[in-house]
Structure formats: C-alpha cells, structure tokens
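Q: what does this look like with S-adenosylmethionine bound?
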Amino acid sequence: MTYLVFILIILNILILIAYNKKKIKKHFYKTKILEKDITDLHSIFNLKKVSNDLKGPTKNSIVKNFCITPENQIIGMTSNYESWIISVLSTISKNILEFGTCSGKTTYLMALNSDKDSKIYTITLNPSDADKIYKKNGDSKIAQKNIINETIYNKFLFSGEPEEKKIKVFFMNSLTFDESNFLDKMDLIFIDGGHTFSVIKNDSEKAFKMIKSKGVVLWHDYNPGKNSSKDVVRYLNSISKNKEIFKIKNTSLCFYQKD
Ligand SMILES: C[S@@+](CC[C@H](N)C(=O)[O-])C[C@H]1O[C@@H](n2cnc3c(N)ncnc32)[C@H](O)[C@@H]1O
C-alpha cells in the first residue's frame, strides 16, 4: 500500500513537471540582460490612457498588420507584440536591413509601415544553397538544423505586391555579405538570420558597423533555456558586458541604440 502511494506521488510530481516545464525552465534560466519597457526605447510607444484600467495606442503607433493563417505552418515567426514593435519602428525608419527573410512576414510589415521612399534590404539564403551551409566549431546543432528547415522560400509574402519595389532581397550567405557600402546608413536593423554562434556573431558585428547614430539594432529569439536559442543567448550575454544591450519586456527581442 505505502509502495503504491509512493508511486502515485512520484507520478504526480512527474506530471506536474511535464506540464510546467516552461515555467520551471524560466525560473532557472533568468535573463542576464537588463530588461526594459518598450517605452524606454522610444516615446512613440507611449500609450494613451483610456481609463484607469485601460491603455490604448496613439495615432503614431497604429500600424498596418496581417495574419498568417495556421495552414501556412511557418516556423520562427515574431509574436504579435514583436511584430507591432518592429512595424512602429519602421514608420520612423528610412533605411532598414534584416538578416533572415524566411516567409518575408517581417520584411512585408517593414515595407507596409515605412515611408514610400524608404528602402528595405533583406539578406537570406537561397533554398538551393541550404545544403552548402557548414557548421563551425562551437555552433549549436539544433540551430544549424533550423537554418536548413527555414531555408525553403524564394518567393515571399510581399512578392508581386506594390511594396516589393521598396525591398531588395540579397540571396546570399550573410557570412560573405559586404557591409562596407552601408556603413552608418541604417536606421533599423533586425537580426533574425541563422541562430548559430558563428552567424549571429557575424551578423551582429556587421550590424554595429551599419547602424547610424540613434539607429536601433534588434535581435530576435533571446530565449534563455530554449535549446534552439542557445547560441543567441550565449552571444548576447557575452557582448552585453561591453555594449548597452537590453531585453524588451514580454518579448524575445533585445535592442541596442547607437549614441
Ligand atoms: C527565423 S527565419 C527569419 C524569419 C523572418 N525574419 C521573419 O520575421 O519572418 C531565418 C532565416 O534566416 C536565413 N538564414 C539562416 N542563415 C543564414 C545565413 N548565414 N545567411 C543568410 N541567411 C540566413 C534562413 O534562410 C531563414 O530564411
């Protein structure tokens, strides 16, 4: 009898752990990067007080958005809140660069919400080159596998739409991308390409050279405890000792704003 009770208690504990895996992981893997509210990045995100318990957007932060229906099964997308943040920043950005296009969801939002004379550059691997990506020493295996799984599009959500004329797609490996034509030019850079250490380091170092004064660099997938984000977390934790990088509350985004 006591043996049975013991087994039942253990079973209950295991079920509780399985159901709360995310919460438990979150507890043990606390962010090492200081968290900030999005309003600390820019006043455009300040909300309008509707009543004591309700706050809403101002005219400046109402943006164009769309929904990707579940049947598309696109992986590695930004959340609604993250998409809104990037869209709002796009309204005040003339030159934008994205590492990692995938379906083109974020690229399209950037184009829909920026000025008509804004320019959006996006760098992505061509599916025909996906098998030529080699893992470097120290790169996460799962992040490497995800690169191959996500490199499947050469037509994007914005293909054939009027906004396409604002977008320049570079089908190439970002490791060979020459940033020297864009030094101090970009208002907004979104780093969401390969999540291996070697790629995230390469993309970030190039971004620091391309971002202009007051410009903003954003990284996606800073998720401590998540296996596929391991290298993003490791890289950002390491550079945050010398660079002012902050995590945006309630997102997996980190930001850096040049002086
Ligand atoms: C997570 S997805 C990007 C999602 C997209 N930014 C969005 O918000 O919808 C990653 C993309 O990065 C691309 N990628 C991965 N490694 C790359 C590399 N070394 N150079 C260029 N693109 C890369 C993949 O082909 C894939 O399209």
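The helical segments are 2-19, 21-28, 80-91, 105-113, 141-150, 197-210, 230-239. The chain has a mean pLDDT of 93.
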